[in-house]
Automatic annotation (TrEMBL):
It comes from Ruminococcus albus. Residues 59-89 form the SWIM-type domain. InterPro entries: Znf_SWIM (IPR007527). This is SWIM-type domain-containing protein. Residues 97-133 are annotated as: Disordered. The keyword Plastid does not apply. The lineage of its organism: Bacteria, Bacillati, Bacillota, Clostridia, Eubacteriales. Coiled coil: none annotated. Residues 97-111 have a biased composition (Low complexity). One of its GO terms (molecular function) is zinc ion binding. Keywords: Metal-binding, Zinc, Zinc-finger.
């Protein structure tokens, strides 16, 4: 037995419950103790470590104990490491523990009264200045693994762009999935997540699902390449790789929740339900919070997906769906952004019948569409930042768009502003669309019929659009809010024409990039010169240069055998970033203009 192994055995024998908890946390320790019951203690002592199998993983115990490693994806001290230590404590005799250090006796105080007085008069030492934690970079070996994985993934993305979706091999989704698994093996969590998303969206295309959106796929593929390129170029830390699991923080005090809606989701890699709650007192700092009951289906056949029980959150004995008619008061609630944890450590302190006819709901209802457009100007990227209660006064028309596979309803507010409600037709939205259609017919036949919507708002091509989650016919009418448009938007109408012109240009450039991805770099781009001239005529020289570089790169690739699809992706990403910045500045101006009737300005005078 080497001295290093003796030291490890001594550390294990000396480790008490507090020591093991400090390596991870109380929950991990309890889980590890449960897993360790009856676990075999077959271990091997090497020169500087002890190796054993635990929970299907191989654990290597080292000195100090927090340097121990495990073959699972976790980069921190996991339950396998803690469980292995618990098992080893049952094997190593307690007498191998380090002997406690003897306390040093302090000499009796012989200070005189004068010395004591002098000591008490000493100036206290300055408090130490807190220092920032040192940045820990990945080792050269780990960095090389991550970069090799990133290069593989970028190569697949470049192949998709070069060949085009129309010529993409049938096994490409499987190859993307294999690359995502490799990302997992090198602990690149963010890369794994977005590669799985690309694979899921690509499967939607190859299987001709209505859920496939070419423009969204183009955007996400460029985002994926951007993330992977950063992994290749940056000096990497663990934070750059992302987290496999969300980090939740505990809220102080009680959290009062009012259930307001739910929707079924099927986003390729995950299926299930998302439940929406109103944070009555804004304890979380947000109006809305969500609980997701989703499960992965990466490796399941779509026609033979297994049924799994619904989540029973917060130590409840029933699924969440069963309590969606009750207001809840939670204690020790944990959140991450707008996501609520379903941890059993959170307790339900009170349940009562819910009523959406309450001041908390009334305060959030928007009856003026301009208020929604202005709020979106300040909203973040999280979905719940863009959720609103909306009360239209009339339904003007409704139709089904067979080309885009969506139901469209045009609605009007108290000031005559008009916008569209859109609901994408999918298997999980069929019944909701049928309900929406019935309500639209009632509003068309009876002008006094009113409803309230819970919807996600967004601005598409310069138009405000609502994507509904729930619709209510029982929320009683209320007085109009009397909303006044903020001063900064008062002169927006003068720029609306120019804003719409630029947004139209941006839209055509996005369509061009989507067409390139759809047909491949070896296909010809139509009207390529017109888009560059269009940008120059609008005074957008920088945009014209970026668009020209994309067009020239595609043309060069088409007429040569040595083209670099990765360089083309980089050019497209730069053009997309420029367009996104421009859209953020112009969308609200255009939306306010396009929704308003000609005489709307009289309302603000």
């Amino acid at each position: 037995m080497t001295d290093a192994v003796k030291e490890i055995r001594k550390l294990i024998a000396s480790a008490d419950e507090d020591t093991l908890v400090s390596l991870a946390n109380k929950g991990t320790y309890k889980r590890a103790c449960k897993d360790a019951e009856g676990a075999p203690a077959d271990f091997t002592e090497n020169d500087d470590s002890i190796v054993l199998d635990f929970g299907g993983e191989t654990v290597t115990i080292k000195s100090p104990l927090d340097k121990s490693t495990c073959t699972c994806p976790s980069r921190a001290v996991c339950r396998h490491i803690v469980g292995a230590l618990v098992v080893m404590k049952g094997v190593i005799p307690a007498d191998e523990a380090a002997a406690p250090e003897p306390e040093q006796e302090t000499p009796a105080a012989e200070n005189t009264a004068e010395e004591i007085s002098a000591e008490s008069a000493e100036v206290p030492a300055d408090e130490p200045v807190p220092t920032e934690p040192e940045t820990v970079y990945l080792s050269e070996k780990d960095t090389a693994k991550v970069r090799a994985c990133s290069e593989l993934c970028r190569g697949l993305l470049a192949d998709i762009l070069a060949d085009g979706l129309v010529r993409t091999p049938a096994d490409m989704p499987a190859r993307i999935e294999a690359a995502a698994v490799r990302c997992h093996s090198v602990k690149a969590a963010a890369a794994e997540k977005i590669m799985r998303e690309i694979g899921g969206r690509l499967s939607d295309y190859t299987e001709r699902r209505a859920a496939f959106d070419l423009s969204k796929f183009t955007e996400r593929l460029m985002k994926c390449d951007e993330l992977l390129r950063e992994l290749e170029e940056k000096k990497l830390t663990e934070d750059d790789l992302g987290e496999f699991k969300r980090k939740y923080s505990t809220l102080d005090g009680e959290l009062s929740l009012m259930p307001v809606g739910a929707r079924d989701v099927d986003i390729g890699d995950y299926v299930g339900e998302i439940y929406y709650f109103l944070d009555v007192n804004k304890t979380s700092g947000r109006n809305f919070l969500t609980v997701s009951d989703l499960r992965p289906v990466f490796y399941e056949n779509e026609k033979k997906r297994r049924r799994t029980p619904s989540v029973c959150p917060w130590d409840l004995a029933v699924p969440l769906k069963s309590v969606m008619k009750n207001s809840l008061v939670l204690y020790n609630a944990k959140i991450s952004d707008d996501k609520l944890s379903t941890s059993a450590e959170t307790k339900v302190m009170n349940k009562s019948k819910v009523s959406l006819n309450s001041p908390e709901v009334y305060d959030l209802i928007k009856d003026d569409f301009r208020e929604i457009a202005a709020a979106l100007d300040e909203a973040g990227d999280i979905e719940t930042d863009r959720i609103f209660f909306v009360r239209p006064t009339a339904c003007l028309s409704q139709r089904y768009d067979k080309y885009d596979q969506q139901f469209i309803m045009e609605i009007e507010d108290v000031n005559g502003c008009r916008i569209n409600i859109k609901a994408k037709f999918r298997a999980e939205t069929k019944s909701f669309i049928e309900t929406l259609e019935k309500i639209g017919k009632r509003m068309l036949s009876d002008k006094d019929t009113c409803f309230t919507l819970l919807a996600v708002a967004g601005i598409e091509d310069g138009e405000l659009t609502l994507f509904p989650i729930e619709i209510y016919d029982f929320i009683v009418p209320f007085e109009c809010s009397g909303y006044t448009l903020p001063e900064k938007y008062e002169g927006a109408a003068a720029y609306a024409g120019y804003a719409e012109t630029l947004l139209n240009l941006f839209s055509k450039l996005r369509e061009m990039m989507s067409a390139i991805l759809h047909c491949g770099l070896r296909s010809e781009i139509r009207d390529e010169d017109k888009l560059v001239k269009y940008a120059n005529n609008c005074g957008m020289k920088g945009l014209a240069e970026l668009a020209g570089k994309v067009i020239e790169g595609a043309s060069a690739f088409r007429h040569s055998t040595g083209g670099d699809a990765r360089e083309m992706l980089l050019s497209m990403e730069k053009l997309s970033a420029y367009i996104k910045t421009g859209e953020q500045r112009l969308q609200t101006i255009s939306a306010l203009s396009r929704m308003q009737p000609d005489d709307i300005r009289e309302l603000d005078q």
